[in-house]
């Protein structure tokens, strides 16, 4: 009898829970395109190749990832789920400059392709000059006449010797406000990488000059990146042309509040 009374008393609450669960499933069950759409030239609008992009996945958010090659004026497009929100910049000799950024949304199955064109156009119109940018950075990170080992800083500003197949490494974590890792790394050539993953930004510097992985070099490099509208030196946030479309959080919050009020009454 007590069990029946319990269910009768709480039937209304259980019904609301069921309705809320169905609403959340409906809101978050998107059928997202999952494919590599190809490479396109700057100024050319991307299109979804229907013969290649037949696969769909169920996800809460749909996403699209753009990889722009400023050195050859092309970009690549990949569709998928929107779980990973990231911006990646790579700069190295060649010169090469790639800028990858993602866009996610939850307003509909085709929202990623519908709303991301303006963000792509904004990034293309920046028209970064890979050659001029690397010329500014080269004197800080590259020793073209290197022959053999080099000296680098390790933890605690300790000077160490790195072998001929290694470079100096300096990693900066903006969230931790720390220059870790630091030391030697097996790699070929100098390179600068900037990562912004869910608003956690890191900068990795791989350089081939003696003692090039110091804080002074980090400041000079980020100053150059900032001047070229790649980062903001004050907070070291990547200035990508991204947007996040919020759709359902307000509805879910309101539903939970109403449910709580009903259960209390």
From TrEMBL:
Residue stretches spanning the membrane: 244-264
Signal peptide region: 1-29
Keyword terms, alphabetized: Membrane, Signal, Transmembrane, Transmembrane helix
Organism, scientific name: Rotaria magnacalcarata
Protein name per its UniProtKB record: Uncharacterized protein
């Amino acid at each position: 009898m007590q069990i029946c009374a319990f269910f009768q008393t709480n039937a209304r609450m259980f019904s609301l829970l069921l309705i809320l669960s169905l609403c959340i499933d409906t809101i978050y069950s998107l059928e997202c395109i999952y494919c590599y759409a190809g490479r396109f030239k700057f100024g050319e609008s991307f299109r979804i190749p229907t013969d290649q992009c037949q696969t769909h996945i169920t996800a809460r958010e749909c996403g699209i990832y753009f990889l722009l090659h400023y050195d050859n004026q092309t970009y690549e497009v990949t569709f998928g789920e929107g779980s990973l929100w990231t911006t990646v910049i790579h700069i190295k000799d060649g010169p090469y400059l790639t800028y990858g950024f993602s866009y996610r949304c939850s307003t509909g199955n085709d929202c990623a392709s519908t709303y991301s064109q303006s963000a792509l156009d904004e990034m293309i119109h920046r028209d970064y000059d890979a050659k001029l940018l690397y010329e500014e950075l080269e004197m800080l990170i590259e020793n073209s006449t290197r022959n053999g080992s080099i000296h680098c800083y390790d933890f605690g500003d300790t000077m160490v010797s790195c072998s001929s197949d290694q470079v100096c490494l300096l990693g900066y974590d903006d969230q931790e406000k720390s220059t870790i890792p630091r030391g030697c790394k097996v790699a070929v050539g100098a390179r600068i990488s900037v990562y912004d993953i869910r608003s956690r930004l890191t900068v990795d510097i791989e350089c081939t000059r003696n003692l090039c992985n110091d804080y002074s070099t980090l400041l000079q490099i980020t100053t150059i990146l900032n001047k070229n509208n790649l980062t903001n030196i004050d907070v070291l946030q990547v200035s990508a042309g991204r947007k996040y479309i919020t759709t359902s959080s307000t509805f879910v919050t309101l539903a939970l509040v109403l449910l709580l009020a009903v259960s209390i009454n």
